Amino acid sequence: TQLLEQSPQFLSIQEGENLTVYCNSSSVFSSLQWYRQEPGEGPVLLVTVVTGGEVKKLKRLTFQFGDARKDSSLHITAAQPGDTGLYLCAGAPGGGSNYKLTFGKGTLLTVNP
Amino acid sequence: DAGVIQSPRHEVTEMGQEVTLRCKPISGHNSLFWYRQTMMRGLELLIYFNNNVPIDDSGMPEDRFSAKMPNASFSTLKIQPSEPRDSAVYFCASSKMTGNQPQHFGDGTRLSIL
After folding, report:
1. Which of A31, A39, A80, A107 is the most exposed place for a label (fewest CB within 10 A)?
2. Residue of A32, A103, A108 to mutate for B, most B C-beta atoms under 10 A
3. Strand A10-14 vs strand A107-112: parallel, antiparallel, or unpaired?
4. Tell me, what DSSP letter sits at residue A41?
5. Is pLDDT at B99 greater than 70 in this prediction?
6. Residues B36-84: pLDDT tens digits?
7. What is the CA radius of gyration of chain B?
8. B16–chain A nearest CA distance, Å
9. Is B5 on the interface with A (CB under 8 A)?
10. How far is A14 from A26, CA to CA, in rounded Å?
11. pLDDT digits (tens, 9 = 90+) for A7-19
12. Strand B65-71 to B74-79 pairing
């Protein structure tokens, strides 16, 4: 069974601060997705990373896939209250089972104004 | 464009009752997923359909759970009889089944079994 561990579990920061959240596994994934979930809503895809070492930027968010495709990080620069939410990473095993995403339990981020 | 539509948004019922959750996927998507989310276990895949056919139901916890997809625009997840430990948020998601296509989630059904 592939497991994804996310850290920290909870993070509360002030507006304008930078932060990094992590997603780690002992398993190799063919790709890794990051989602953000707001209260009362479903997760919304932010990005998919596919290649080991890949870095993708989405405005103030920077996503990196580890060289060995076992881990990933999300860095937010100058966090804003609108960034508040549950950040989930999800790994795809590859091959014919690529639909079977393994989700981490998430990092609950609160950005205080 | 309409996203994935789930109903009801909230359901409160007594244990032993039958519960039916409904999902309308995004038009043109041929893959549909049912997930359950709890604090303890996070998001877990229950069942996956491709072209209305159940492909992987290994995540369905017990025989009390069943899912159907009678056509490309409708799916149900049924729990009979329901138990308090089934309380969770149930999500439906759909995607195009090509490559690393993203899964689009509905807003979920918050189920409470008393």
Report:
1. A39
2. A103
3. parallel
4. S
5. no
6. 999 888 999 999 999 999 999 999 988 999 999 999 999 999 999 999 9
7. 13
8. 26
9. no
10. 33
11. 999 999 999 999 9
12. antiparallel
d(CA A56, CA A48): 9
Question: Quick one: B74 exposed, middle or buried, by C-beta within 10 A (0-12, 13-18, 19+)?
Answer: middle
Residue in chain A closest to B10 (alpha carbons) equals A40
Amino acid at A90: A
DSSP state letters, B52-103: TEEEE-TT--STTEEEEEEETTEEEEEESS--GGG-EEEEEEEE-SSTTPPP
Q: Do A88 and B44 touch (CB under 8 A)?
A: no
Sort out which chain A residues have CB atoms less than 8 A from B42's CB and list them. Answer: 88, 103-106
The residues, any chain, with a CB within 8 Å of residue A81's CB and separated by 6 or more, are: A15, A111, A112, A113
| Chain A: residue whose CA lies nearest to B95 | A99
Tokens of B24: 């309308």
Give me A18's structure tokens.
């930078």
